[in-house]
Design goal:
Elements: E1 2-5, E2 8-15, E3 20-24, H1 35-43, E4 47-51, H2 68-78, E5 84-89, H3 91-102, E6 107-113, H4 131-142, H5 146-159, H6 170-185, E7 209-214, H7 219-231, E8 235-240, H8 247-250, H9 252-268
Parallel strand pairs: 3-4, 3-5, 5-6, 6-7, 7-8
Antiparallel strand pairs: 1-2, 2-4
Length: about 270
């Protein structure tokens, strides 16, 4: 379905009934990364919601001032959702955190995967084994070579920055390149309203939170999960072996049982 807001038309999936679980995709993907989890949640008699943000997938938007948090709030209103469990990967996790701080009453719980955080410090330097990949990214970006940039980002985010390129093959790689290639082909949106830094405020998030990272991801992202686990009073961290930045996409056979058990425990403990 499509939901229109301002000049944007959002491509949205909403399937099933029950407690809403909203999936927020990574910045190198779109809502298709959640296909396995949407099926899992609907089979468990819950409502799965996923959508393409502005600048991604099938959503169409003009370059105008916007807020990802406001977009999420509007979409929940349009779908008749008061509060939801938020499952966010990378930049989707950043939006989930920002939303939870601004709308705590609408946030039941969160699953944050390889999450970014608004206002988090950038790493001072990357390990030596990652430097060639950083240089390749900068060269492709400077040359405005979107095909090469897509390949470099597949190495960084799908394979893992310190692994040989091409570690992940087959349909997963093809879909990653298609999703990220679509994003790189969209017109750049330059008027996002930057959220207030969440990095110093995450301790105010008291809802249940599970932090999931892949062991092959960038080291600073894994370390940041340690910071979040220490700051968030009702959180715990999990590392999935043999996965990089997108463990829910790459290793659903490991991630999905974790997600399902987490959601079922929320019900049992009356968190929802």
């Amino acid at each position: 379905m499509n939901i229109d807001f301002d000049s944007a038309s959002f491509s949205v999936i909403s399937e099933g009934d029950g407690v809403p679980v909203v999936f927020l995709h990574a910045g190198v993907a779109d809502k298709r990364m959640w296909a396995s989890q949407v099926e899992l949640v609907t089979d468990a008699k819950m409502r799965a919601i996923a959508y393409d943000r502005r600048g991604f997938g099938e959503t169409r938007a003009q370059d105008e001032p916007f807020s990802h948090v406001e977009d999420l709030s509007m979409l929940l209103d349009e779908l008749g959702v008061g509060a939801a469990v938020l499952v966010g990967c990378s930049q989707g996790g950043r939006i989930a955190i920002d939303f939870a701080l601004e709308h705590p009453q609408r946030t039941i719980a969160m699953v944050l995967i390889s999450t970014a955080v608004s206002g988090a410090p950038e790493p001072e330097e990357y390990p030596a084994e990652i430097q060639p990949l950083i240089m390749a990214y900068e060269a492709a970006d400077e040359a405005d070579d979107t095909d090469m940039l897509n390949l470099v980002e597949a190495h960084a985010w799908l394979d893992g920055p310190a692994t040989p390129g091409g570690r992940v093959t087959g349909e997963l790689r093809d879909l990653f390149l298609e999703m990220n290639g679509t994003t790189l082909g969209h017109e750049e949106l330059s008027h996002e309203i930057e959220p207030t830094s969440a990095y110093e405020q995450v301790g105010a998030i008291t809802q249940p939170v599970v932090l999931v990272s892949g062991e092959l991801d960038f080291p600073h992202i894994i370390e940041q999960h340690g910071y979040l686990e220490a700051e968030m009073p009702n959180s715990f961290a999990v590392i999935i072996e043999g996965a990089a930045h997108l463990p829910s996409f790459e290793r659903p056979e490991l991630f999905n049982p974790l997600l399902l058990e987490y959601l079922q425990n929320l019900f049992e403990n009356d968190a929802v």
